[in-house]
Design a protein that fits this description.
The chain is an alpha/beta fold. Helix content is about 25%, strand content about 20%.
Length: about 260
């Protein structure tokens, strides 16, 4: 029997509208049809698992690749997880004061923020959104707990250049624009996650289709050059690795892309 085709979807700005926080009905319909046609469908997100669980009520998938490749699930079962060392975690949670930045320490079950309001309103807004998902930790921020990645929010008062220099040996630090940086342990990313899943399920890479819009999607575009789809509004860093540009999320971009590739 021929190996199935495997589809990997970013969330924010790709499957999920950043205008209304919803997955368009056309995308739900298209993914469901692709699965009926024998494809396997996966979420492949920079978000940790605690920030993805609510999506299970919105759309059915075969698996979830969370935390930029650090936490992988297939049919509801965890198949891989990588946690940072205690030493790394402690460096991270003390870095905000040292470099004058905002830090989000991300775990599979909860995210960790300082309890006091940040001078950066965007940090306060991200915390409020996380609270709505019941995913903010009640532990001491500088305490010891398990995380797999972290994010930085910087502004003109931050010493972000020194922080990047001090952390880049152990972490891939992705500039997500607007002073926001996503920090992943070396050796892990969305592309590595795809390769891990495909090796486990014996799926050849030529059967891989990826859909994304932002800079942290670059590694998955690099492993799926033949079938890489960028949304109409996407980070230019994806352009050299994009085989097809579809429409906006809200304008049935996912459905149009799946039709383009003959998957539905």
């Amino acid at each position: 029997m021929a190996a199935p085709k495997a589809l990997f979807f970013d969330i924010d700005g790709t499957l999920l509208s950043e205008l209304n926080g919803q997955i368009p009905e056309s995308a739900k319909r298209a993914v469901a049809q692709a699965r009926k046609n024998g494809c396997l469908a996966f979420i492949n997100s920079g978000r940790c698992k605690c920030m993805l669980d609510y999506l299970e009520t919105m759309i059915e998938m075969d698996g979830v690749l969370a935390g930029c490749g650090t936490d992988l699930y297939f049919h509801g079962e965890r198949i891989f997880y990588h946690a940072l060392t205690d030493e790394q975690q402690q460096r991270i949670v003390h870095a905000d004061k040292k470099y004058n930045v905002g830090i989000i320490a991300e775990g599979c079950d909860v995210n960790h923020y300082r309890p006091e309001p940040s001078r950066m309103e965007i940090m306060n807004e991200m915390k409020r959104r996380t609270e709505l998902m019941n995913a903010v930790s009640d532990k001491s921020f500088e305490g010891h707990y398990e995380i797999s990645k972290f994010c930085i929010q910087a502004d003109k008062e931050s010493d972000i250049e020194t922080m990047i220099h001090d952390f880049e040996e152990d972490f891939t630090i992705m500039d997500r624009r607007g002073g926001f940086y996503e920090c992943i342990p070396k050796g892990y990313d969305k592309g590595e996650a795809i390769q891990h899943i495909c090796q486990l399920l014996d799926i050849p890479m030529e059967n891989v289709y990826v859909f994304g819009d932002s800079s942290n999607d670059l590694p998955m575009f690099q492993v799926a050059l033949k079938h890489s789809t960028a949304m109409k509004e996407h980070d230019p860093v994806l352009d050299p690795y994009t085989a097809y540009v579809t429409d906006k999320v809200e304008e049935h971009g996912i459905e149009k892309a799946l039709k383009h590739w003959g998957l539905i």
